[in-house]
């Protein structure tokens, strides 16, 4: 396998994880995860000096 094939494989496998997790979570749990992810993105943007 070359680098491109490996990248495509992991992109495909990785994309299934979030969908499977979302199916098993309640609406409240999904909301909490999304809120936490949003805060993490904002913190990263502040660290880097704002959005582009």
How would you sum up this structure, described in words?
This protein has 52 residues and is mostly helical. The chain has a domain of 28 residues. Helix content is 85%, strand content 0%. The chain is built from two helices and no strands. The chain is flat and about 40 Å long.
How are the secondary structure elements laid out?
Elements: H1 3-24, H2 27-48
Shape: flat
**What's the helix-strand series?**
HH
In the predicted model, the low-confidence regions spanning at least 5 consecutive residues are: none
Biggest sheet, in brief?
none
The oligomerization state is: single chain
Gyration radius, to the nearest Å? 16 Å
Mean pLDDT: 84
**Class of secondary structure makeup:** mainly alpha
**How many E strands?**
0
Query: Percent of residues in helical segments?
Result: over 70%
Helical segment tally?
Answer: 2
Summarize the structure.
This protein has 52 residues and is mainly alpha-helical. The protein contains 2 helices and no strands.
Keywords:
52 residues
């Amino acid at each position: 396998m070359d680098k491109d094939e490996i990248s495509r494989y992991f992109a495909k496998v990785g994309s299934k994880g979030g969908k499977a997790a979302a199916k098993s979570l309640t609406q409240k749990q999904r909301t909490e995860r999304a809120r936490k992810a949003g805060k993490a993105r904002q913190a990263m943007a502040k660290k880097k000096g704002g959005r582009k």
